[in-house]
Amino acid sequence: MNRRVFISVSIISLFILFLLNFSISRSASEKLNYFFKHEVHSLISTQTSILTNLVRNDLISGNFMEARAKLAKATVSSRVLACYFLSVDGEKEFLLNTEIQRGAHIENFEVPISFSSGGPVWGKLVFSVEMQGLVRSMREFKSMINLSQSLTGLLLIIATISFIFFLWRSSHYLELRVSDCLNGQFRHDKGSLSIFWSPLLNQLSSVAAQYRSVDLTIRQIEKENESSRMMDLMMHDLKSPLTALKTGIHKIGIENSAVRLMDSATKRIEELVTSSVIHRKLDSNSGACISRIELADFLERLLPDLKCLNSSARIDLVLGKKDEEYFSFVDPDLCSRIIGNLVQNSIEASHGSIFIRILIRKTDSFNYIVISDKGRGMSNEIIEKIGKIPVSSGKHDGKMSGSGQGLYGAFKLVRAWGGEIKVSSELGVGTQIVIALPIAT
User: How many CA atoms lie less than 13 Å away from 68 in the CB half-sphere?
Assistant: First the structure.
């Protein structure tokens, strides 16, 4: 082969290899940069969403101490260093405040919070996440990729030069050089490459471990949601046989002691079912079924069902002012359970003629549902415990009162909606329960 032709072919081949290696390296670097930014932000967004769901119910109920405790426990080994809740009114409540080192690379991630899907945003959580380690890992990873690509290009160029040189020489010399390269030099180069690949593999292993952790968390949440749906179906299916059993008992009459025992047990089961539904919705996501409803219309439609609780009871609904609207954000199904449970308690607490009055009125900020009766009343000792723990008022007229789980659940649920329940009572006079719910604008 002519020496000039060999030199020309070698130069052209090397130039083409250089351009290909440069183009591949640049494309890989851009894709790698996009991959890290997209995947890292996606990973952190998933983590902050999980943390938000963890404390969402506590924020809705205003229990910031519980929210702080949960966040402190959940962020022990995470990159979340600080977190605060910012309401739409501009009020800021710090929930997590870890010492941030000087020079740290911090990015803020905001997660809006609303009562329901598509509902108005009433606040947001702002998470401060330490990105220095991730940024450093990305730079190291890119450096390793660039170094490995450069080394690969260099080896390719060397191999091309060697190959052309071998073609120029005799075939015997070519076979000898290739044999030497494969038996000795190639193994040496491979051993050198492992020095550069080791940090890269460590970074990939760390990223993979974080992905596995997030995937495991998502699978656990999906499993818990499926169990919750199955439990809700079971509770719903229990309502029909309970209704049939109650109807049969009332048709027989409760003069017999055995029938009275069955009636008491049926009410106890019904109370447990209601309490279980309330607590499960509180533990899962209290904002899932919340909607904006008009309370006066809601109570008017509920009134016939309330009167069916006791055919001899007189239950009156009184509106504060005519042509006035009372809108609030509540879960309609759970709200009807709460009202029904409170009216049932009033019926059981009454003796002789039963008269229950349901009044609805409003102020500038709250709607009020007032349920009053002329029953036996409760002692101050019991009233002080109501809303803090499940309380039973004991045995009256040969019948055992409920466990207090329904009323306790009602307190938790109304607080989750941003409201409050107040109970006032006097022995021998009666009881008044006031449910305050924020006005939905």
Answer: 11
Query: Tokens 């180069």 correspond to what residue?
Result: 189
Task: Give percent helix, percent strand, percent coil of the chain, each to the nearest 5.
Answer: 60, 20, 20
The CA-based angle 32-37-38, given to 5 degrees, is 95
Can you read off the two tokens belonging to residue 286? Answer: 């209290």
Helix locations, 61-131, DSSP H: 64-74
Judge whether 24 and 149 are in contact, CB under 8 Å. Answer: yes
* Whether the Cβ atoms of residue 327 and residue 440 lie closer than 8 Å to each other: yes
The two counts, helices (H) then strands (E), for the chain are 10, 13
- For residue 176, the number of C-alpha atoms closer than 13 Å in the C-beta half-sphere is 6
Q: Could you report the per-residue pLDDT of 118-170, keeping only the tens digit for each?
A: 667 778 888 888 776 665 556 666 666 666 666 666 766 676 666 666 666 54
Q: What is the pLDDT of residues 290-330, one digit of tens each?
A: 889 999 999 999 998 888 888 788 999 998 777 889 999 99
433 has which bridge partners? 371, 423
What is the rounded distance in angstroms from the CA atom of residue 272 to the CA atom of residue 266? 10
Residues 6+ apart with CB under 8 A from 366: 419, 436, 437, 438, 439
| 361-414 confidence digits (pLDDT tens) | 999 999 999 999 998 888 888 888 887 877 665 544 444 455 567 788 888 889
How many Å apart are CA 426 and CA 361, to the nearest integer? Answer: 23
Spell 98-129 as b/e; 16+ CB within 10 A means b.
Answer: eeeeeeeeeeebebebbbbeeeeebbbbbbbb
pLDDT at residue 202 tops 60: no
Alpha helices in 97-185 (DSSP H): 132-168, 171-180
Q: What are phi and psi of 422, to 5 degrees?
A: -125, 140
pLDDT band at 421, cuts 50/70/90? very high
Diameter of the chain by CA atoms? 123
Cα Rg of the chain (Å, integer) = 36
In order of 78, 107, 127, the CA distances from 102 in angstroms are: 18, 14, 18
Q: Which residues of 32-50 are buried (b: 16+ CB within 10 A; e: fewer)?
A: eeeebeeebeebbeebbee
Phi, psi of 105 (to 5 degrees): -90, 105
415/419 Cα distance (integer angstroms): 5
Q: Say how many C-beta atoms besides its own lie within 10 A of residue 155's C-beta.
A: 13
